Amino acid sequence: MVKTIEIEGKVIVFKASAFSPIQYNTIFPGHDFMKDMSVLETAAENMEKDENGDTVISVSTLPMEVYEYFVKIAYLFAYQGLAPTPRLTQEQIEFREKYPDPWEWIDTFDTFSIYQILPEIMELWNINEKQAAKAKKSNPIPPEK
Fold first, then answer.
1. pTM exceeds 0.85
2. Which of 5, 11, 22, 52 has its CA 20 to 30 A from that of 124?
């Protein structure tokens, strides 16, 4: 699943796929994508809502551990958005050279605007998971003998 989001005039292509957990664990050794995503999803579900029902996201409402997961997952999805397949591209090499860690990448944005993409990131992964679940369910039944 691919999603294009404009942040402060920069167009960023985010991509989530079945390869995301593998790539995450490769880029961030010692981390577990599914566990970190679960913590991020729980935090997003428990965030305050404004009078319109929209999630209120700020530094004070997002614990540092959760913010770290958000930054790493957003970085991963932006990195994956540079390639149509899991194969390494020149754009990805340049991205990692320019931003060797997610903190350097996230520092190129205002704090307020980057928080606005949290729901987009969560939606991207959730849609990807739903599509994977549908694919599993649509296996044809083998013919009877």
1. no
2. 52
